[in-house]
Amino acid sequence: DKGNHRHFMAKEIYEQPETISHTLSHYVDMGAEKVAIRETLPFDFADLSRLTMSACGTAYYAGAIAKYWFERFARLPVDIDVASEFRYREPPLEKGGLSLFISQSGETADTLAALRYCAGQGQHVASLVNTLESTIARESGVVFPILCGPEIGVASTKALTAQLTALASLAIAAGRARGVLSAEQEAELVRALTALPSAVSAALGAEAQIIDISKRLSKAKDVLYLGRGAMFPVAMEGALKLKEISYIHAEGYAAGELKHGPIALVDEAMPVIVVAPSDELVDKTLSNMQEVAARGGKIILITDEDGAESVGHGVADIIKIPHVHSFVAPILATIPVQLLAYHTAVFMGTDVDQPRNLAKSVTVE
Ligand code: F6R
């Protein structure tokens, strides 16, 4: 049932304030301002020297964002790779290490093969899944549910924000176990998480403006997405989402890589979507953005009030998201990126929920 929405994807985008709240209620004790992991952990975060993550597509980008969190808030080194590469790379792994697999369906063939390789190497195997009665869940030592309800649209939306909410909670748990986060710091991060559902509702309010921008985006042949830090995987996710449902070619790049090649693509016909909410790195990304503007590139900036103020009047299209703690900003920034892809695809007239050549669950490699 699509409710009042034209597509399941739209319904699932709009469900996110509730689905994020639901995921949070599993992982967070809001009253105590603490993360409370209910699953029994067969390992201790304090003893780990490394976390290895593997996944495909959007689930991989969830892990790529979480890498910044585990490294920063738990000082835990993270290796992450797409499962189709990881499984054949057969990387050396220390016995007793932790491997974490992220999969909405729990049936993705490459992710499952990566999991079996890690189990064979004596790793603790954990998975983050939506479908609890799945092969990946069954073969995991510990299963972290993302609890977002069935996702019908082929393009993943609410599963991504649920994965991120759960991963953010795990990063806090790891930070506490490893003695990196004090109780006050944990409370600050938990408050940032609990502020998310209402911030997501507010971010959805930019829809009318996004429809207007999407109309122009639907005329583009190629689109570039730029981000720095945890916004870099958000940029890659934005490009993936646009490609898969609107069939417009798009690439996500680390903002600092622009001048090492992709800037050669920039001309008046090239929309460049810059994902840059205010944080300690925003000025660097905004200066990369100015380099694009100087070459006539059409900029669409996703930022908050402070970010918008620091660019002044130079940028025609600024999609504003509420100011949130920089910890959770990558979760919030996925919202306008989803809406842009969705509305561009609607203008293109593609089959949004069932894009050509794609399956919801990729059970063959
Ligand atoms: C993109 C998308 C895919 C999946 C990928 C992994 O919108 O939905 O890239 O994220 O196929 O699927 P799961 O999470 O089921 O392993």
Automatic annotation (TrEMBL):
Active-site residues, Swiss-Prot/TrEMBL: K360 (for fru-6p isomerization activity)
Describe its function.
Answer: Catalyzes the first step in hexosamine metabolism, converting fructose-6P into glucosamine-6P using glutamine as a nitrogen source.
Instruction: Specify the enzyme's EC class, one word.
Output: transferase
What are the GO cellular component annotations? cytosol
* Record bears the keyword Transferase: yes
For this chain's UniProt record, which GO biological process terms are given? Answer: amino sugar biosynthetic process; carbohydrate metabolic process; fructose 6-phosphate metabolic process; protein N-linked glycosylation; UDP-N-acetylglucosamine metabolic process
Q: Which reaction does it catalyse?
A: D-fructose 6-phosphate + L-glutamine = D-glucosamine 6-phosphate + L-glutamate
Q: What is the predominant subcellular site recorded for this chain? A: cytoplasm
Give the quaternary structure: Homodimer.
- Protein keywords: Aminotransferase, Cytoplasm, Glutamine amidotransferase, Repeat, Transferase
MF terms per GO, please?
carbohydrate derivative binding; glutamine-fructose-6-phosphate transaminase (isomerizing) activity
User: What range does the record give for the signal peptide?
Assistant: none
Q: Where in the cell is it found?
A: Cytoplasm
Q: Which residues form the SIS domain?
A: 41-180, 213-355
- What's the protein here called? Glutamine--fructose-6-phosphate aminotransferase [isomerizing]
Q: Where are the transmembrane segments?
A: none
Its Enzyme Commission number(s) read: 2.6.1.16
